[in-house]
Prior knowledge:
The protein has a single domain, classed as TIM Barrel (Alpha-Beta Barrel). Helix content is about 40%, strand content about 15%. The chain has ten helices and ten strands. The strands form two sheets. The protein has an eight-stranded parallel beta sheet. A two-stranded antiparallel sheet has the order 1-2. The protein is globular. The structure holds NADPH dihydro-nicotinamide-adenine-dinucleotide phosphate. NADPH dihydro-nicotinamide-adenine-dinucleotide phosphate (NDP) binds near residues 23, 193, 218 and 237.
Amino acid sequence: MATNPIPDITLNDGNTIPQLGFGVFQIAPRDTVAAVREALGVGYRHIDTAQMYGNEAEVGQAIRTSGLEREEVFVTSKLSNAFHRPEDARGAFQSTLDELKVNYIDLFLIHWPLPTRYDGDFVSTWKVLEEFKADGRARSIGVSNFQVPHLERLAAETSTVPAVNQVEAHPYLGNEQVRAYGRAHGIVTEAWSPIAQGKVLPDPVITEIAERSGRTPAQVVLRWHIQRGDIVFPKSVTPARIAENFQLFDFSLDETDMDRITALDQGESGRQGAHPDTFDYLPA
Length: 284
Ligand code: NDP
């Protein structure tokens, strides 16, 4: 078997995470085992799921039946918006382990800060994640969709710096302020919707670079993220795309092309998903 080409990134707690993973948002539970098995077959060793995706059990099943050891696959999940209260978060975290049928998770995140819910108290939720790290059931802990002021509150009121902050980022939303805070404070950025769910792929700058370099638009965009140093986990249920999105380590973009893609940033108008300051969705 070919050596794994995926670089590891070292987190601020000393653990390592593969820079490229496989995301399973919006993969129906009935399709999840096949998609994750396909990804593991291609060589992905990092799966990004969440309680709110409703497919943790299927992710666990795919890993267990893949022939790989548990330790060979880095698994991330995230706390549902429904369970920010400390007592709820403790039970919900154990249900993630039970669904996945694992006795530890590699990385567990607060999915959204929900500053307009729970009296804006994501700090007490974070302190509960610290317990999971301390007892070893979460190897690393982090956050998702945290803006700079949210991160500043964690820094002021708690003693653990999140290992990662998973935020929307792609050529149309560079999210540079949040990324810069992460760089300055040892928080690795994970870029969600790295190809903006396909919306950036027809951009003329992307297609021109793709044609000239003999790569696909998705490969060009994903390579841009890799060279920025962020972690990515593109989602696909299409086997050819799952394989395509893995082929990022036998070419590189020069500085001019990197800068041209970075210049596509549209600021807030490039945001595709919800804004973390106002998103208040609670699952039923
Ligand atoms: P992506 O940017 O990964 O895009 C996925 C879409 O692009 C799908 O429709 C897929 O189609 C299509 N696609 C994938 N590869 C290619 C390709 N090579 N060429 C053309 N089209 C392609 O979007 P996601 O929103 O899924 O983001 C990725 C992951 O990030 C999620 O799965 C999840 O793990 C995470 N995420 C986290 C969030 C958070 O709040 N923390 C929010 C959103 C995402 P098809 O499947 O039909 O092949």
